[in-house]
Task: structure prediction
Amino acid sequence: MAPSRPSPAVSSPDSDDAQSESVLTVLVALAANALIAVAKTVAAMLTGSASMVAEAAHSWADTGNEVLLWIAGRRSSRPADERHPLGYGREAYVWSLFAAFGLFAIGSVISITHGVQELITPEPADLFIVSYIVLGIAFVLEGISFLRALRQARQLARTSEHDLLEYVVRTSDPTLRAVFFEDAGALVGLVIAFVGIFLHQITGSAVPDAIGSILVGVLLGVIAIGLIVQNRRFLIGVAVDPRIRSAALRGLLEHPQITAVTYLHIEYVGPGRVVIVAAIDLAGDELEHTVARRLNDLEDELETQRRVARAILTLSRPGATPLTPDVTV
Result:
């Protein structure tokens, strides 16, 4: 069989290099959140601020999440075996789902509960300068972590010709998505906490501080639910972007042994990993055993690409309508 260049069919920015970048992004976020969580906890104990308690819960939830995301990256990168022929890629979505539930249960629920308690039974707060210093340090550290995630996401979005937010929402890499939105939420939460604590200081009322805690909890809940929904989608099975599918179809049709493709399905089975199922017409008219060998050779050729976990090819049904690269369904 004549060699051909690797098909662009499954070209996507979620490459192995991008996965390594995501692991580093998670580790940066883990270090930042661990330091911030300790500082916020001490500040919450010293000041009695409801918003600071909410921020401490937020940072501890984020720290635990980064650990789960690191586990997700490690376990999902294991090679395929006999019992898992498509590999372990979907483990990334399982552990990322756990992390999202943790963000909701620890960060959101605790923040909202504490804010409501503060409204019902207000407690005095003092040492406001401690809160401001900790919030300032936290903003710097969270900003460093967010800028790293933003830089990675922006580069990958540019490569895939997507808008930044569109790419982050739709990427098959759950760790990048989680760190990006958690860090963005953390920065917004810090601003909310600052406003609540400042209003508490100048008015003497604990109500703005309590409302700040509740707003931080609501923010975390929205982020957590969004992450849960996306991880659930990828666990169930998500087809690749129509542009990637169209490129895949063009790549198959350019192969010298393929004259037509009548069915094509490409689905993510992990971060940056896909399975290809296609029905094709082969050039020539050969015996059954020869055709079977040619199909197997083509499958092997597709699977040499890093991003293809499995390729399954079969012959087209007689009379089936050939697909064209502009077909997106």
Q: What stands out?
A: Strands lie at 258-270, 273-282, 308-315. Confidence is low (pLDDT under 50) at residues 1-9. The domain at 12-236 is CATH 1.20.1510.10 (Alpha-lytic protease prodomain-like). Residues 287 and 293 are 10 Å apart (CA to CA).
